[in-house]
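Changelog note: in this version the structure field was regenerated for every chain. One regenerated record is shown below for reference.
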Amino acid sequence: NLTQAVNLYVTSAGTDIFLKQVAANTVEQVPIHGLAAGTTVTLKARTVDGTRTYTRDNIALASSYDWRVP
């Protein structure tokens, strides 16, 4: 488990859109506004110190998606 917060982004058409900062060791439901259901995106979580980035590629937006960052 990470010991620091992550900044959560969604990448669509090559552009990172900041969603929210999520505290370490928490579970959050984060809405994604402005992108239609079915849009294919990349989810990205970057540690606040910038040393690690986690991604999940080719996600089709739906009503919900469960993604756990290490």
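Spot check on this record: The chain has a mean pLDDT of 93. The chain is about 0% helix and 45% strand.
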